[in-house]
Structure formats: C-alpha cells, structure tokens
From TrEMBL:
Keywords: Repeat
Span of the signal peptide: none
Xref: PROSITE patterns: PPR (PS51375)
Gene Ontology biological process terms, A to Z: RNA modification
Pfam families, per database record: E_motif, PPR, PPR_2
Gene designation: LOC104234388
Keyword Repeat on entry: yes
Name of protein: Pentatricopeptide repeat-containing protein At2g20540-like
Organism placement in taxonomy: Eukaryota, Viridiplantae, Streptophyta, Embryophyta, Tracheophyta
PPR repeats, residue ranges: 215-249, 350-384
GO molecular function: RNA binding
InterPro entries found in the cross-reference section: E_motif, PPR_At4g14850-like_plant, PPR_rpt, TPR-like_helical_dom_sf
Amino acid sequence: MRLFSWLKAKHLTDIKPKCRICYCSTTTFPAVSQHKIPSQNIHITRKELSKLLHQRPPKSQLKQIHAQILTQALSSTAAFVNSLIHCYLHIMEFTSARLLFFHYPLPSPPILIWNLIIRTYCKLQNSSESFSLFRLLLNLDPLIRVHPDEYTFTFIVTSCAHQRSIVHGKIVHGLVVKNGLESNLYVGNSLINMYAVFKITDDAYKVFDKMTERDVFSWTSLVCGYANNGEMDQACEIFYKMPQRNDVSWAVIISGFAGNGRYMEVLVCLNEMFCAVEDKVRPNEAVLVCALSACANLGALEQGNWIHAYIMRNDILCSSNISTALIDMYAKCGRIDCARLIFNRIPRPDVHNFTSMISGLSYHGLGEDSLTVFNMMLDKKVNPNEVTIIGVLNACSHSGLVEEGSSIFYNMETLWGLKPQIEHYGCYVDLLGRAGYLEKALEVVKSMQIKPDIVIWRALLSACRIHRNIFLGNSIIDFIKQLNSAGPSGSEVLLSNLYASLGNWEKVSEVRKAMGQRKTQSDIGCSWIEVNGVVHEFRVADKLHPQILEVLDKLNELWIVLS
C-alpha cells in the first residue's frame, strides 16, 4: 500500500485551527481540499509526521502531509510549521512558505526561519524580497527579541552584491559594525566579496585587515577583487602571502592574468602551480581554459600541445569549454587542421564550439568554409549567438562575400532574434569597405540606430586607405575629431598611412607634426615568438629586454648579410 495514499483531509472548511497559519484553508491551500478521501480512517502519529517532513517529500505528498497536520490540529506547533516552511522552500513553493511564515503561531518566527527565507531569495538573486524581509526584521518590536545574526548579514550582504547597490551595501556594512560582527569570518568574507564586485578594493582590504580569522575564501576573494580591478601587482602580493591555496585560488590569479592580457604570466603561473607541491592541487577546467587562451594569444603551439597532452593523459573530461579553447588555440597557432579534428570529434557541438570553429576558419581567410560550418550549425537546429554572427561577418569580410554577409546582417534579428550591436555594424562596415562599397558603408554608418563609435569610423577610414579615397578619409577624420577632441592617435596614423600610400609626403608630415604637437603617439607594438617551447616577448624600442645585447648583435649580423 502506498504510504501517502490516505494522507488527505476530508473537509478543510470544517477545520478551525487555533493559530493564524490557515485562517481560510480553502483559500490558502486549495489543492489540498480537492482530493477524494479513502474509506479507511488511518491516524498518523506526530513522530511519523515529523519523520516524513524530514525526508523532504515532493509537492503532491507534502500537500497530503500538510492536510494531515491540519486535521490533527498540529498547525499551532512551531516545530511542524518550521518543517513545513523548510519543505515548501525546498520545492520552491514560495506562496505556501510565505503564508506559513506570515501567520506563524508565535509573535515571530525564530531567526533561523528568517535566515532560511532570506537565503532562498538571495540564492535566486531576488534582492528586493531579501531587503523587504530584512527591513521587517529590523522593525520588529524589541520585546520580541529576534535580532539578525551573522548568517542574516552574510545573506543580505550577498544580496547587495547581486544587486550591485553600493548605497545598500554601505548601509548594511554600517549595521554590521553596529552589531559588532565586522570581524566575523562569514560576514567578513561576504563584505570582501561585495566590495570586490563593486571594484572598491581599498574597502575590501580594510575589511580583510580587521578580520581576526581568515580562511582560503577570504584570501581568494581579495585576490579576485584586485584582479578584476586590473590591479594584478596587488593581487599577486596577496596571493603569494596566502598560507594555503586551493584550485580556486590558482584559477582566480591565472584568470586575472588572462583577463588583463598578461598571457606570459598565465603560463608562468601555470608552471608554478604544477611545481607547488605543498598546495597539492591540479589545474581545474577554468585554469586549463585560461592557459589554452594564453597559448592562442601568444601563438605558443608547443605549450598548447603540452596542455592538450596533459588533458588526454589525465583523462580530463573534454567539456564544451575545453573543446572550444582547444579549437581556438589550434586555429590561432596556425594549425587549422588540428582545430577541425577537435571539432569533428565533438559528438554534439554546441553554439560555443560552432562559434570557435567559424571564427578559426575566418582567421585563416576560409570564408566559404566558415559559411559551410555556419549552415551545418543551422541544420542541427543550433541557434547562433551574437559572437557567432561576428565570426561569420568577419569571414565574409576577409573573403569578399558581400552578398552572403549582407543577407546574414539584415536577417539576424528576423531569423534568430539578435539585434545588431555596435560590433556587428563594425564588421558589416568593414565588409563593405574592403569590397570597395565606400558610399554604401557610409550610408550604413549614418543610418545606424546606435551612435557609431570610433572603431566604426576607423574601419571606414581603413577602407579609404585601401581604396585611396582621400576626400572621404578627410571627412571621416572630422567625424572622429568630434568624438574625441584630443585627437585619437590610431585614426591619425591611419590618415597618415593613407597619404603615404598616395605618395603625398607633405600631408604625411603635416599629420605627424599635428600629432607631435599634441604629444600623441600610437600604441607600443608588442610581439611574441616561441622557440623550443619557450615564449619570448618583444616590444618596440625595448631596451630593458634581458637579452637585448644578443638581439642587437644578431640584427647587426643580418644587416651585414643583407647589405
């Protein structure tokens, strides 16, 4: 016989509970009163009901148990109400949980129940409900003697971080100090994380400094805050002071280097991670993805091959993220054949795998192959995202596929619900410009629904240089100067190159002189080369390179040979 076949109330409207939980049972829990009751009348003891509730039953069974509690007039017992609230929150039945909470048999639920509901809303990132309950808690009659504890503040601080509300965060921090909980481990960790999200690293460090007890999460949160704010030197300083590091700590510092474009340090840090015997950690998925991304940006094929071999040797699951990173790495390191091999071995490619393959083929100028993969993606009912469209448009641009690119650009919103963003306009303008449709490209820019940024104008200016259209180039420079009165160096360098391509050295000198008067200079060039698995970095006019003398000697040898 099924255990719950008989747990139903016959006439809930006849029940008159002595508490305020279900003042109108048919309104509050209508589903319970709709069941037919078996002929036998079986009684369940309080102990059995309590045991059933602790098993976290599904919704249909929970309603039956609740009905049995009502029939036995146990709804005025706080222990049963607490268990019911737990169960309803567990199955995300918020309406029933809130009704039980607001019609509690005592003047107020205990702080444990307050925390439970606030935490649930916090997990769902429903900050408004969290704040609403927190305000109710603060405004309770002092005689009730229910006050927020360290867990309450931990959850509400996390809600402030989710909402990205600095004002609320500061107010709650003040209440934390008032209640003497600033040095508490859990509250301190949540405050550090909150200020890290706000990118207020000074305040995060102040909280960290006042904590009497710290764990690995405290240190890692602070490192993450500095890394996300671009303060990698401070992040490293804190990281190397950590008494103990786990895989998340290493992932945070490595992803910080990757996110700030310091790819050499990513590989150095990965090597340190393997050598850190005391930490007893191995790279997780986040570390491997960042390392492969660094190899892709450095063109470090040997390093990338080693990481791929490590993944295979240790039977690490080739997840979608790792597969995507491998495709990207091999494509950018010149091994598009290996990228294809990785892609073809994926049983069910997702949008990220397809996007990486499309972008890789585009990177190699294989526009038609990119379109083939794109069509395969559509055939498999995988909808593209914004990045996919950027990759396809770039492929069309590099291969001169104007008709195909135009069709994708103008249909992206109709077919896939993707509204063109500034990046899509930039790709399409570049496509038209490269193909020589300068006037059409200018029309697209002028008809944009969003204000064109400097990247759009530079793409058009670059097309003017390719097709030697000085008149339009000068007009575009005027538009760019309106966007940036300081005179953006990249644009003026392009204009200078445009004049140089036409042999107009007088104009080249004019532009360069104007740049010099404003102390404008182009970005310092940087390049990498991998030799025997070691990546070397070089910058323009870099006299601080550790092997600068050997480099200069070799350049002199080459100069003599060429002379």
